[in-house]
């Protein structure tokens, strides 16, 4: 009997009690299905503060012969509710009503309050093959006007959606949205024959293997004619050393180095570009953390506020690059747009194999 036969033939509660995410994955179950089974295991089997209500739910589900699909549907309906107490109350009510899947679904729809209306928002997806997806939720009249303006002159014999892209972009550019101008920043790896000695004011003092010392700015002047460009110096273990340009504005330099180190928010799967991020102290300012480049990273507004929330994980520096550390201690880099300075300068052919010194 394979996994899917057991879902149909075994008792739902027996299947849930013996659920293994690894086994389900190896059996080829869809990720959404695995998440649903995992959630049922959490509700009916895992440790909880409400053991009595959990036992009562198990008894009702077993006695009334609910299937795994029926139990999963109940949990989908209950998911929007923020109150665990209300979820538990409605779960027990639904488990008292054995019926067909469709009848139970209609009952759940009547009992569970409707989801709140969507609020205006705009989201931007990840880049893929040079394209990105934007989702916009806005007042219906405004979007109706936008759609009407973009739909003028479309060919009715061709698909509508692809034709709307060009007119919408023309409306955007005509509305004054400027094209982003890339800011060239030359990344210079600090040779391992040099050693970081100390910070001296706005400069970094470097020790060379010939027994002499120099500043980072002098080192770059020897190897790179500026010609109006900017250059940043990075150490293979300690990360950004300093940024040199005609005007030495420490705050600007620190922000630029932090952005060069992480081109997007470093929290896994976040796509917020560093230009739209905030500067975050790895060691909090209130805890004595300094506003030095070796303590600064970029974080999007949301993750900057979630970083110190207990149980949500936090950003640390590993090998000079920011990575997210989970509540259980796992260090996970953001796999999206992995072209930060440390990866670009000091990784092998496969950035995913990089193991920074100090990790």
TrEMBL record:
Transmembrane segments: none annotated. CDD domains: HNHc. Residues 253-305 form the HNH nuclease domain. It holds the Pfam family HNH. InterPro entries: His-Me_finger_sf, HNH, HNH_nuc. Gene3D superfamilies: 1.10.30.50. It comes from the Bacteria. This is HNH nuclease domain-containing protein. It comes from Corynebacterium guangdongense.
């Amino acid at each position: 009997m394979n996994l899917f036969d057991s879902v149909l033939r075994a008792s739902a509660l027996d299947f849930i009690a013996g659920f293994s995410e690894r086994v389900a994955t190896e059996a080829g179950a869809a990720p959404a299905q695995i998440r649903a089974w995992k959630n049922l295991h959490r509700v009916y089997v895992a440790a909880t503060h409400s053991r009595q209500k959990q036992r009562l739910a198990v008894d009702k589900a077993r006695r009334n012969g609910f299937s795994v699909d029926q139990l999963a549907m109940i949990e989908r309906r209950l998911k929007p509710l923020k109150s665990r107490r209300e979820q538990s109350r409605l779960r027990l009510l639904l488990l008292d009503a054995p019926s067909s899947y469709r009848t139970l679904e209609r009952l759940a729809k009547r009992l569970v309050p409707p989801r709140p209306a969507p609020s205006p928002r705009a989201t931007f997806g990840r880049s893929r093959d040079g394209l990105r997806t934007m989702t916009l939720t806005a007042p219906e009249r405004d979007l109706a006007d936008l759609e009407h303006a973009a739909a003028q002159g479309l060919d009715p014999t061709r698909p509508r959606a692809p034709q709307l892209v060009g007119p919408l972009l023309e409306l955007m550019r005509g509305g004054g949205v400027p094209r982003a101008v890339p800011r060239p920043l030359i990344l210079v790896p600090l040779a391992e024959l040099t050693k970081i000695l100390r910070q001296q004011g706005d400069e970094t003092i470097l020790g060379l293997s010939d027994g002499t010392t120099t500043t980072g700015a002098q080192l770059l002047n020897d190897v790179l004619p500026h010609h109006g460009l900017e250059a940043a110096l990075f150490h293979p273990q300690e990360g950004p050393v300093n940024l040199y340009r005609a005007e030495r504005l420490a705050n600007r330099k620190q922000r630029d180095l932090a952005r060069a180190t992480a081109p997007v928010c470093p929290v896994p799967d976040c796509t917020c570009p560093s230009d739209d991020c905030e500067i975050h102290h790895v060691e909090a300012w209130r805890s004595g953390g300094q506003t030095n480049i070796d303590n600064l990273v970029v974080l999007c507004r949301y993750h900057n506020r979630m970083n110190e929330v207990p149980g949500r994980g936090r950003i640390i520096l590993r090998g000079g690059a920011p990575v997210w550390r989970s509540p259980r201690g796992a260090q996970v880099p953001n796999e999206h747009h992995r072209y930060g300075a440390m990866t670009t300068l000091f990784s092998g052919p496969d950035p995913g194999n990089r193991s920074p010194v100090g990790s």
